[in-house]
Protein backbone atom coordinates (compact mmCIF):
# COMPACT_ATOMS: atom_id res chain seq x y z
CA UNK A 1 0.00 0.00 0.00
CA UNK A 2 0.98 3.64 -0.38
CA UNK A 3 0.80 6.50 2.08
CA UNK A 4 0.54 9.96 0.54
CA UNK A 5 2.36 11.91 3.12
CA UNK A 6 4.37 14.93 4.24
CA UNK A 7 7.24 14.58 6.72
CA UNK A 8 6.31 17.78 8.62
CA UNK A 9 2.65 16.82 9.01
CA UNK A 10 1.60 15.47 12.39
CA UNK A 11 -1.61 14.29 10.74
CA UNK A 12 0.64 12.03 8.65
CA UNK A 13 2.68 11.00 11.70
CA UNK A 14 -0.39 9.11 12.96
CA UNK A 15 -0.50 6.46 10.20
CA UNK A 16 3.31 6.38 10.00
CA UNK A 17 3.40 5.48 13.69
CA UNK A 18 0.68 2.85 13.37
CA UNK A 19 2.27 1.26 10.29
CA UNK A 20 5.61 1.14 12.10
CA UNK A 21 4.10 -0.50 15.17
CA UNK A 22 2.21 -2.99 13.00
CA UNK A 23 5.39 -3.74 11.05
CA UNK A 24 3.43 -3.28 7.82
CA UNK A 25 5.53 -2.45 4.75
CA UNK A 26 4.31 0.45 2.62
CA UNK A 27 5.50 2.98 0.09
CA UNK A 28 5.73 6.55 1.24
CA UNK A 29 4.82 9.16 -1.39
CA UNK A 30 5.71 12.69 -0.34
CA UNK A 31 3.16 15.22 -1.59
CA UNK A 32 4.11 18.86 -1.96
CA UNK A 33 1.38 20.25 0.28
CA UNK A 34 2.35 23.79 -0.65
CA UNK A 35 1.46 23.10 -4.28
CA UNK A 36 -2.26 23.75 -4.71
CA UNK A 37 -2.48 21.32 -7.65
CA UNK A 38 -0.81 18.55 -5.65
CA UNK A 39 0.49 17.18 -8.98
CA UNK A 40 -2.80 15.33 -9.34
CA UNK A 41 -1.65 12.90 -6.63
CA UNK A 42 -4.62 13.62 -4.43
CA UNK A 43 -7.20 13.89 -7.20
CA UNK A 44 -9.31 11.23 -5.50
CA UNK A 45 -9.37 12.97 -2.12
CA UNK A 46 -12.11 15.62 -2.07
CA UNK A 47 -10.18 17.74 0.44
CA UNK A 48 -6.81 17.43 -1.37
CA UNK A 49 -5.11 17.03 2.01
CA UNK A 50 -2.67 14.45 3.34
CA UNK A 51 -2.56 11.81 4.65
CA UNK A 52 -4.23 9.56 2.10
CA UNK A 53 -3.81 5.78 2.12
CA UNK A 54 -3.96 3.85 -1.15
CA UNK A 55 -4.75 0.22 -0.43
CA UNK A 56 -3.31 -2.71 -2.35
CA UNK A 57 -6.69 -2.92 -4.09
CA UNK A 58 -6.40 0.67 -5.30
CA UNK A 59 -8.90 2.24 -2.90
CA UNK A 60 -8.05 5.74 -1.61
CA UNK A 61 -8.77 6.47 2.06
CA UNK A 62 -8.35 10.09 3.18
CA UNK A 63 -8.66 11.46 6.75
CA UNK A 64 -6.21 10.30 9.40
CA UNK A 65 -8.94 8.89 11.65
CA UNK A 66 -10.42 6.78 8.85
CA UNK A 67 -6.97 5.52 7.92
CA UNK A 68 -6.20 4.59 11.53
CA UNK A 69 -9.45 2.67 11.94
CA UNK A 70 -8.96 0.87 8.62
CA UNK A 71 -5.38 -0.16 9.39
CA UNK A 72 -6.08 -1.13 13.01
CA UNK A 73 -9.03 -3.42 12.30
CA UNK A 74 -8.32 -6.88 13.72
CA UNK A 75 -5.17 -5.73 15.56
CA UNK A 76 -4.58 -5.15 19.29
CA UNK A 77 -4.70 -1.39 18.63
CA UNK A 78 -8.49 -1.40 18.12
CA UNK A 79 -10.85 -3.09 20.57
CA UNK A 80 -13.82 -5.10 19.25
CA UNK A 81 -17.16 -3.32 18.72
CA UNK A 82 -18.75 -2.18 21.97
CA UNK A 83 -18.02 0.34 24.67
CA UNK A 84 -14.24 -0.01 24.43
CA UNK A 85 -14.33 0.76 20.71
CA UNK A 86 -16.72 3.67 21.34
CA UNK A 87 -14.11 5.14 23.67
CA UNK A 88 -11.55 4.95 20.85
CA UNK A 89 -14.00 6.70 18.52
CA UNK A 90 -14.64 9.31 21.21
CA UNK A 91 -10.97 10.33 21.26
CA UNK A 92 -10.63 10.21 17.47
CA UNK A 93 -13.57 12.61 17.09
CA UNK A 94 -12.22 14.77 19.93
CA UNK A 95 -8.86 15.00 18.24
CA UNK A 96 -10.37 16.25 14.99
CA UNK A 97 -12.95 18.52 16.57
CA UNK A 98 -11.07 19.99 19.55
CA UNK A 99 -7.34 19.32 19.55
CA UNK A 100 -6.30 19.58 15.92
CA UNK A 101 -8.27 22.77 15.08
CA UNK A 102 -6.73 24.46 18.13
CA UNK A 103 -3.19 23.26 18.65
CA UNK A 104 -2.30 22.35 15.07
CA UNK A 105 -3.54 25.66 13.69
CA UNK A 106 -1.83 27.70 16.42
CA UNK A 107 1.41 25.79 15.90
CA UNK A 108 1.32 26.24 12.14
CA UNK A 109 0.58 29.96 12.54
CA UNK A 110 3.42 30.45 14.99
CA UNK A 111 6.02 28.47 13.08
CA UNK A 112 5.08 30.18 9.80
CA UNK A 113 5.17 33.62 11.43
CA UNK A 114 1.45 34.18 10.95
CA UNK A 115 0.71 34.71 14.65
CA UNK A 116 1.77 38.37 14.40
CA UNK A 117 -0.37 38.91 11.31
CA UNK A 118 -3.59 37.66 12.87
CA UNK A 119 -3.07 37.84 16.66
CA UNK A 120 -6.76 37.47 17.51
CA UNK A 121 -7.04 34.30 15.45
CA UNK A 122 -3.82 32.99 16.98
CA UNK A 123 -5.03 33.71 20.51
CA UNK A 124 -8.34 32.00 19.81
CA UNK A 125 -6.66 28.86 18.39
CA UNK A 126 -4.20 28.78 21.29
CA UNK A 127 -7.04 28.92 23.81
CA UNK A 128 -8.79 26.12 21.96
CA UNK A 129 -5.58 24.10 22.11
CA UNK A 130 -5.26 24.72 25.84
CA UNK A 131 -8.86 23.61 26.40
CA UNK A 132 -8.14 20.41 24.49
CA UNK A 133 -5.01 19.71 26.55
CA UNK A 134 -7.08 20.27 29.71
CA UNK A 135 -9.63 17.76 28.41
CA UNK A 136 -6.90 15.16 27.86
CA UNK A 137 -5.69 15.72 31.42
CA UNK A 138 -9.24 15.38 32.69
CA UNK A 139 -9.73 12.19 30.67
CA UNK A 140 -6.63 10.65 32.20
CA UNK A 141 -7.33 11.85 35.73
CA UNK A 142 -8.92 8.55 36.84
CA UNK A 143 -5.52 6.88 36.65
CA UNK A 144 -6.07 4.92 33.43
CA UNK A 145 -2.79 4.31 31.60
CA UNK A 146 -4.15 5.06 28.14
CA UNK A 147 -6.94 7.21 26.75
CA UNK A 148 -9.39 4.41 26.03
CA UNK A 149 -8.57 2.45 29.17
CA UNK A 150 -5.98 -0.19 30.03
CA UNK A 151 -4.73 -0.78 26.50
CA UNK A 152 -2.70 1.32 24.06
CA UNK A 153 -4.87 1.98 21.01
CA UNK A 154 -5.09 4.14 17.90
CA UNK A 155 -6.75 6.75 20.13
CA UNK A 156 -3.40 7.31 21.85
CA UNK A 157 -1.53 7.54 18.54
CA UNK A 158 -4.07 9.98 17.12
CA UNK A 159 -4.07 12.29 20.14
CA UNK A 160 -0.30 12.00 20.65
CA UNK A 161 0.43 13.44 17.20
CA UNK A 162 -0.40 17.06 18.03
CA UNK A 163 -0.49 17.05 21.82
CA UNK A 164 3.22 16.26 21.95
CA UNK A 165 3.96 19.48 20.02
CA UNK A 166 2.45 21.77 22.69
CA UNK A 167 5.83 23.27 23.59
CA UNK A 168 6.05 24.71 20.05
CA UNK A 169 3.35 27.18 21.11
CA UNK A 170 4.67 27.50 24.68
CA UNK A 171 1.89 25.42 26.23
CA UNK A 172 2.78 23.10 29.09
CA UNK A 173 1.52 19.65 29.87
CA UNK A 174 -0.01 18.73 33.18
CA UNK A 175 1.98 15.88 34.81
CA UNK A 176 -0.74 13.35 34.03
CA UNK A 177 -0.45 14.21 30.32
CA UNK A 178 3.36 14.23 30.38
CA UNK A 179 3.29 10.76 31.98
CA UNK A 180 0.86 9.50 29.33
CA UNK A 181 3.04 10.90 26.51
CA UNK A 182 6.02 9.08 28.02
CA UNK A 183 3.99 5.84 28.18
CA UNK A 184 3.07 6.21 24.51
CA UNK A 185 6.71 6.83 23.58
CA UNK A 186 7.73 3.70 25.51
CA UNK A 187 5.42 1.36 23.56
CA UNK A 188 7.20 -1.27 21.43
CA UNK A 189 8.25 -0.03 18.01
CA UNK A 190 7.30 3.59 18.74
CA UNK A 191 8.67 6.08 16.21
CA UNK A 192 8.33 9.83 16.01
CA UNK A 193 9.81 10.92 12.69
CA UNK A 194 7.95 14.24 12.54
CA UNK A 195 10.24 16.73 10.86
CA UNK A 196 10.26 20.28 12.22
CA UNK A 197 8.65 23.11 10.28
CA UNK A 198 11.59 25.39 9.41
CA UNK A 199 11.64 28.70 11.29
CA UNK A 200 9.84 31.59 9.63
CA UNK A 201 11.58 32.96 6.59
CA UNK A 202 13.67 29.82 6.05
CA UNK A 203 11.76 28.62 3.02
CA UNK A 204 8.60 26.48 2.57
N1 LIG B 1 -8.74 16.11 8.94
C1 LIG B 1 -7.59 15.80 8.14
C2 LIG B 1 -6.66 16.99 8.11
C3 LIG B 1 -5.53 16.79 7.12
C4 LIG B 1 -4.68 18.04 6.97
O1 LIG B 1 -5.01 19.13 7.45
N2 LIG B 1 -3.52 17.87 6.31
C5 LIG B 1 -2.61 18.97 6.08
C6 LIG B 1 -1.20 18.58 6.52
S1 LIG B 1 -1.12 18.40 8.27
C7 LIG B 1 -2.57 19.33 4.61
O2 LIG B 1 -2.66 18.47 3.76
N3 LIG B 1 -2.42 20.63 4.34
C8 LIG B 1 -2.34 21.16 3.01
C9 LIG B 1 -3.28 22.32 2.80
O3 LIG B 1 -3.87 22.80 3.78
O4 LIG B 1 -3.45 22.73 1.67
C10 LIG B 1 -6.90 14.55 8.69
O5 LIG B 1 -6.95 14.32 9.90
O6 LIG B 1 -6.32 13.78 7.90
UniProtKB/TrEMBL annotation:
PROSITE patterns: GST_CTER, GST_NTER. Residues 1-79 form the GST N-terminal domain. Signal peptide: none annotated. Residues 81-204 form the GST C-terminal domain. Pfam families: GST_C (PF00043), GST_N_3 (PF13417). This is Glutathione S-transferase family protein.
Amino acid sequence: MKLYDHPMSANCLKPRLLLAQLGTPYERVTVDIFDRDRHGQLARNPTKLVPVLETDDGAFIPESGAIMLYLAEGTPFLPPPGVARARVHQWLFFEQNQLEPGLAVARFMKLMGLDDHAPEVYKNRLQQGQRALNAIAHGLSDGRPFLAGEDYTVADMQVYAYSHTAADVDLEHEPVVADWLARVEATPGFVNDLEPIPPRGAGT
